[in-house]
Each structure stands twice: as C-alpha cells, then as structure tokens.
C-alpha cells in the first residue's frame, strides 16, 4: 500500500502573523497598481514667455476633452473683456498723443470729441463685478497692467537689478505711490483723464467732492450697467450760461460707452494709425476683436462665447493643473505663467514631465516685453528656449515647439520688415514662409542634444486647426510614453 505523506496547513484566521501578511499583500498590490497608473499618466508642461498663448492652448484642450467652458468662466471673461476694451481704447488715445499722432477726436468741432470725453472719464472698474472677474488676482493684474506708475516696478521686479536703474526715479515714483490712494481706480490712465478735467475743475466750485459722493451713491443704486459722471462743464457752459459753476451729473450707460468705442475705432484715422504702431507700446493682443464686437459685450448680462474666451486674456499666476482623459491615457497638463516674475515657480513642476510644449508667439518679433520694455520678445523667447531645452531637467524629455500667432505673423510681415529687428534676415518683406523658416531654424539650432524637437505652426485661437494639431500632438506624446515605458 502506497503511502504518501501529506501535510495540511490549517490556517488559523486569528493568527496575527497571517493577518499582517494579508494587509501587506493588499498594500503591495495597490502600490503596484499606482505605479502602473503613474506610468500611464502623461504630464505635459506648457512653457513659454508671457502672452505667447499657453493658456489658449489649454483652453482648446478643454474644448476638445472637457466639454468646454463653465458658466462661471463665461461670466468671468465677459467682465475682464469689458474692462480691457475700455482701457485699450484709452491707451490708444493716450499713446497717440505721446507719439504725436493727431486724433480727430481731439478736434472740438468733431462729432467724436464728446465721445472721447465720455470714454476718458469712465472708470472701467465701475462697470464690472471685480469678484466675478477674478477678485484680488484680477485687481492686481489690472493695476500692474494699466498703471504707468508701475512700469519701473515691473522692470525692477523682472530683473532684480534695482541698482541698474535710475534709483532717484524709483524713489520719486515710490513717493508718488505712497502719497496716492491705493484705490485701483487711481491709475495713470485716469490721471491722464484728470489732466483733461483740470480745466473743467477750474470752472466748478468747491462742490466737487459732493458731486463725487453723489456719483458713488448713484452707482450703488444703478448696478454695473450705468454710471453717473460729471457733465462736461465747458459743454454745460455753452449750453447754459447761468449754471457754469455748478457741475451737473449725467448718466452714462454701457451702451453709450460701446457706441463711443465703436465710433472712435471706426471713424478716427488717428486711432487706426496709432493701432498700427501698437508694437511701440503695450496693448492687449485682442484689442481689435474687443472693439469690433464692443456692442455685443455691452449687453447686460452678456455671457461670453467660446470664441470670446479664446480671444480674452487672463494672465496666469503660478502653475495650474488640469486633467484630461484622452483615449485610454490620463493627461495632466500644467500651465505656467510666462512672465519673468512667474518663472521662478517653474522649477517646482519640472519633475516627471513626459513632454514640454513650448509656445512661441511668432508675431512678437517687433514687440518689447511687458515686464521690461527694453527687451525684444523674440530675443527673450530664444534665450528661454535655449535654457530649457538644454537644461539637465529635460535631458530626455521630448520638446514640442508651437510657432504660435501665425495668423498675426502672416499679416505683420507684410508691413513690418523682420530685418529691422533681425539684421541677418535675408528674406523679402512680406514673405511669411521665409520668415517662419528663419525663426524655426534659429530655434532648432539651439538643440545641443540628440533629442528631437517637433515643430507645429499654430493659431491657438482657431478651434478648427487646433483640433488637428492637438490630436497629432497628443498621439505623438502617447506613442513616446509607450516607448519610454517599454510597452512598444
Ligand atoms: N490672434 C491670435 N491671438 C492669440 C493666439 N494665441 C493666443 N492669442 C491671444 O494672446 C493673448 C495671450 O494668450 P494667453 O494664452 O493668455 O498667453 P499665456 O502664454 O498663457 O500668457 P501668460 O499666462 O502671461 O504666461 C490672448 O488674448 C489670446 O487670445 C493666436 O494664435 N492668434
Ligand atoms: Mg497663461
């Protein structure tokens, strides 16, 4: 009779060793799963100089893979665009004077004269809900953007070289700032407007303050669609000789402001001339779009369309993270603020990046940085790309280069010779293809490694073309990731 020895281990459910072992197994299993998930997760980092179009690329990804924008975003942009539209037209008026461009609206006999006066007296912030526009982030950005008083501060902040500048000038400005109210309404643009009002103020008596109290009282009652301002006292003087010393209050509506902006935009030749020289100062890239559509933005409770949001601009501060599921892959897209003061935060997001998407604003070869108006934007991007591409952080990280704002570039090269800013450029004026190849070559020549750089020409505000570009790019990144993880 055969005999076989068999041992049967009877598991004791109460054995503490066994219980421990089971817990460990579960932990090990979940760690393995997490590892696998991390391997499949794709981290895409959007980098580039300020205003190059990084967040616009992210918006296109949201449109494609996240069902579009939320109602809150639509409301936010309608507030921001309205404020930017008003300020942008004021900037054109003020800059025209600085550049010596005669304006039709400065001629008191012109029908545009009164419209200009209305616009210059309007305070954009009185017409918007700053909370909906983005709260303190919005206000900070607004003050920095529209106050010339902050120009020096911006520059010092961006270079950290206070000593290299006229310290006396800084000190003077600091004094000016500390003497002035911290109300964000108290911007230089409004100061220009105050200058305009000086003569008017000379005509009125000491009731000025009372008048302004009334303005704010009325504002509270009227909501954001209407604002009360002092009526042009010279105008009052002409109309009513008896009441020259008493300022009266007149009601200004969003509709009237929109009308003023539209008329100035379409009828004042000086405004158009000044706009054509917008590379000599800082103006919102989408200002023309705001002016063309100003009546739409003036409608009460207007909610932005997808196109408006793509054209609108909210500067990114810090780094935002957005997750998408594209096919079977999970994408984490990191969008970083591109202005100089934002870049010191970048390093925190450099680890574990699958691919870097560098966005270059091609059209900005003739523009200066917002942070430092002595530095050409294209030069800044070249320097930035060189540093990132060849940094130890991205030794094995593929780079995708978006030659963005190609729509503006195509138009600009017809009038603005590239050679004026890049003397070794040999192409002829208006040859957009030669211009693109020239800049592409400069960027590719910076590569001191063997890794490939994938180049795409983009117009980030155009959903049709971006759909194809982004689909090709995400496919490419997925393939790269699979290769890297040894799956293919
Ligand atoms: N016409 C045109 N405008 C563009 C294009 N790409 C971006 N813009 C506009 O350029 C402005 C700036 O774009 P953003 O995406 O905010 O730039 P950003 O790189 O995120 O800027 P920061 O957040 O400051 O780093 C917005 O008004 C966009 O609508 C483009 O290809 N063509
Ligand atoms: Mg951004």
From TrEMBL:
Q: What's a single GO BP term from this record?
A: regulation of carbohydrate metabolic process
Q: Which UniProt keywords apply?
A: GTP-binding, Hydrolase, Lipoprotein, Magnesium, Metal-binding, Myristate, Nucleotide-binding, Palmitate, Pheromone response, Transducer
Bias class Polar residues marks the residues at 200-209
Gene3D superfamilies hit by this protein: GI Alpha 1, domain 2-like (1.10.400.10), P-loop containing nucleotide triphosphate hydrolases (3.40.50.300)
Q: Which CDD domains match?
A: G-alpha
List the PROSITE patterns hit by this protein, alphabetically. Answer: G_ALPHA
In which residues is Mg(2+) bound? Answer: 316
Query: Example GO molecular function term?
Result: GTP binding
One Pfam family in the UniProt entry:
G-alpha
Residues that coordinate or bind GTP: 310-316, 335-339, 404-407, 460
Chain residue ranges for the region called Disordered: 157-209
Origin organism is Naumovozyma dairenensis (strain ATCC 10597 / BCRC 20456 / CBS 421 / NBRC 0211 / NRRL Y-12639)
Basic and acidic residues composition-biased segments: 164-174
What's the protein called, per UniProt?
Answer: Guanine nucleotide-binding protein alpha-1 subunit
Cofactor field: Mg(2+)
A Gene Ontology cellular component where this protein is annotated is:
heterotrimeric G-protein complex
- Residue spans of biased composition, Acidic residues class: 187-199
């Amino acid at each position: 009779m055969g005999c076989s020895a068999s041992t049967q281990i009877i598991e004791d459910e109460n054995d503490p060793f066994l219980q421990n072992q089971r817990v460990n197994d579960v932990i090990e299993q979940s760690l393995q799963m997490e590892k696998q998930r991390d391997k499949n997760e794709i981290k895409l980092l959007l980098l580039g100089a300020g205003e190059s179009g990084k967040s616009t690329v992210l918006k296109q990804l949201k449109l494609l893979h996240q069902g579009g924008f939320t109602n809150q975003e639509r409301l936010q942009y309608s507030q921001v665009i309205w404020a930017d539209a008003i300020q942008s037209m004021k900037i054109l008026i003020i800059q025209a004077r600085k550049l010596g461009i005669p304006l039709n609206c400065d001629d008191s006999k012109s029908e545009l004269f009164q419209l200009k006066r209305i616009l210059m007296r309007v305070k954009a912030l009185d017409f918007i809900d700053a909370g909906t526009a983005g709260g303190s982030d919005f206000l900070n950005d607004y003050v920095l953007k529209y106050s010339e008083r902050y120009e020096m501060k911006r520059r010092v902040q961006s270079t950290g070289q206070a000593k290299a500048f006229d310290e006396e000038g800084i000190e003077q400005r600091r004094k000016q700032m500390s003497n002035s109210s911290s109300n964000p309404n108290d911007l230089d643009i409004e100061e220009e407007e105050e200058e305009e009002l000086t003569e008017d103020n000379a005509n009125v008596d000491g009731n000025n303050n009372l008048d302004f109290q009334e303005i704010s009282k009325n504002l509270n009652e009227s909501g954001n669609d209407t604002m009360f301002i002092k009526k042009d006292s010279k105008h009052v003087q002409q109309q009513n000789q008896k009441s020259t010393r008493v300022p009266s209050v007149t009601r200004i509506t969003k509709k009237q402001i929109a009308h003023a902006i539209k008329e100035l935009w379409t009828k004042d030749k000086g405004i158009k001339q000044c706009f054509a020289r917008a590379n000599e100062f800082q103006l919102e890239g989408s200002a023309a779009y705001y002016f063309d559509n100003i009546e739409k933005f003036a409608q009460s409770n207007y909610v932005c369309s997808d196109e408006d949001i793509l054209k609108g601009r909210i500067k990114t501060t810090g780094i935002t993270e957005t997750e998408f599921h594209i096919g079977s892959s999970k994408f984490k897209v990191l969008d970083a603020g591109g202005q100089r003061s934002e870049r010191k935060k970048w390093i925190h997001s450099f680890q574990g990046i699958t691919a870097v998407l560098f966005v270059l604003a091609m059209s900005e070869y003739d523009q200066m940085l917002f942070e430092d108006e002595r530095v050409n934007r294209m030069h800044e991007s070249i320097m930035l790309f060189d540093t990132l591409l060849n940094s130890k952080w991205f030794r094995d990280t593929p780079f995708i280069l978006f030659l963005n704002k190609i729509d503006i570039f195509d138009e600009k090269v017809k009038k603005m010779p590239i050679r004026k800013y890049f003397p070794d450029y040999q192409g002829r004026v208006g040859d957009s293809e030669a211009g693109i190849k020239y800049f592409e070559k400069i960027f590719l020549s910076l590569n001191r490694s063997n890794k490939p750089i994938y180049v795409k020409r983009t117009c980030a505000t155009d959903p049709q073309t971006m759909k194809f570009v982004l689909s090709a790019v995400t496919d490419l990144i997925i393939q790269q990731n699979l290769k890297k993880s040894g799956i293919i």
